[in-house]
Design brief:
This protein is α/β, with parallel strands linked by helices and about 280 residues long. It is about 20% helix and about 30% strand. The chain contains 5 helices and 16 strands.
Length: about 280
Amino acid sequence: MRIIWGFFLILSLTIQNAFPINSTKGNNAVTDSSASMNFTDLKDTLYTDHPFYIDVNLTAQMGYLHSRDGSVKPFGISSGTDKLEDGINTKEGLFVIQCKMPKWYSRQFDSTLMLNWMGFHYGTGFHALKGSGYYRFLGKKRSSHGCVRISRDMAKFLYDTVSLGTPVLVHKGACLVAVAFTDSVHKYVHYSVEGLLNEVNRRYKQMYAGKYFISSHFHLLMDLDNVGHQGVPLGISKNILKRQIIKSPALFVKSVIPPVKGTVLIRKSLVKNDFRMYFVSK
């Protein structure tokens, strides 16, 4: 028995040296193991039942059609700019395809014919134009009054491929949310429009406070029923703490290894710089 207790005493000292608590920031304390990790790229995830989702990078002026089978189809875009008269910058956010029309005429801009219209944010959507003059801007420069222009071939392909409710992630390269596909293993929670927005914003606040990893999270399902035209915000990347609170591996010993009579468990407090031994007698 003395040998066993001696072994766990040495183990506790070893773990304490490996994962000391930094208490200089009070509730924002982190383990040294996380101090060396940069969580700037930390993202929350929303899930879709659809076979595709579209990623639009406004900085690169590129779109990417992601498929459930893992394939990605890139295509050039030309997004909106406020440098044009009556033009607006294409809004960032996480949206879904709200409507589809093979032909749509813009009432605001001299009844311009828009081919294979796929709207995702009020009057903003993907579309092609009858002429080819705008092709020189695709993948290179913003040139529309707000929509995401694409080539006629790509517009036809997208129109025939994606359905209503397909996610559209529009960003400039930095955001706190990602899209992933559902699977048959995990369970997913479907909130209302208001409920989804509240939950996403709650998670962003946890990222800002450095507490994302110590809070419980459900797998959130997004679709046409809970993502309206306003979309889901992307969060503020510059506000995320690079050092997040993480749980010490010792906290999971009890759940990973079922305790038996005569077993000693070692736990590390998240608040105090100490280890505690618990002897299981039952």
